Amino acid sequence: MEQLRQDDPPRIGDFVTLARLDADGGRGEPERRYLARSADGGHTVVACLPASGSDPAWWAAEAQQAARLTQPGFWPVAQLGGTPAFPWYASPYRPALPLPAVLAAYGGPLPEFLVRTLGGTLAEALASAHVLGIVHGGVCPAGVLLTACGPLLGCFGATRAHLLAEHSPAPTTGLDTGCLAPERAAGGPADRAGDVYALGAVLAYAATGHTVPERDEIPAGLRDLISACRSRDPQGRPEPARVLAELLPGAAYGGLAGATEPVSLPGRVVEALSRQSAEVLAAALPTHER
User: Fold this and answer.
1) CA-CA distance, 77 to 216, in Å (whole number)?
2) How far is CA 165 from the centre of its chain?
3) What is the pTM of this model?
4) Mutual orientation of helices 56-68 and 158-166 as an angle, nearest 10°?
5) Helical H segments across 174-266, by residue range
6) What is the pLDDT of residues 150-202, one digit of tens each?
7) Which end of the chain is less enclosed by CB atoms within 10 A, N or C?
């Protein structure tokens, strides 16, 4: 949990904001995400708003599409609201850390076994969406939310919302450009190959702390796969199902995304998830409007 700033909204719909989910000034935040609670104190949610400088209408349209997506592996969109100028969505709260916060809690790049678990689960989620003809369009480190049962993909379409706001193929300042495929940066449409490029950037980030590391920085066991995902040639990138098979050989397709059993996580990450949960439970509603 991060303290609210003066420019943060005191309320989002019927919910009172308690804290930010993302660290203040965090890099590449694709949305503004808040921990919030109903006025009667009975419901705690993660409430999301478009990032500053993004296109609110496009962001709202992407949120509506995400709300209809029932495939496992995606952060759920349970409630939509707001106005064209101030759209928002909310999801029931569960302890979750954005991937940058996971690395901060762990103290650096993650061990290879966890990178493989994260990447395989995300690849399975993308594969299930791509089968339906759905492109995520917002895969990035901050869009990955780690729960006790594994990662979930949020920030659906955030990249497109940023780019459309600029009316230019050049990305906005707040966007993590390392996750943007070259053809997308040149003005091309969002597509499945772009999702794979961004997945490679997320794997690189988890393994090194950077979305665009030098090849020698990447652990040897992941080097070839990450390089293939980040190929400048879209045709040279592997399909998500192949990424899953390379990361987790022998894993049964359909058994990772949306799992309900806890996964093996480093103790420091488990501690951070537990601390967040305790802080949310202890958080009191503000006694007056700011």
Assistant:
1) 39
2) 20
3) 0.91
4) 160
5) 182-185, 192-208, 220-229, 240-247
6) 999 998 876 666 655 554 444 444 567 899 999 988 888 889 999 999 999 99
7) C
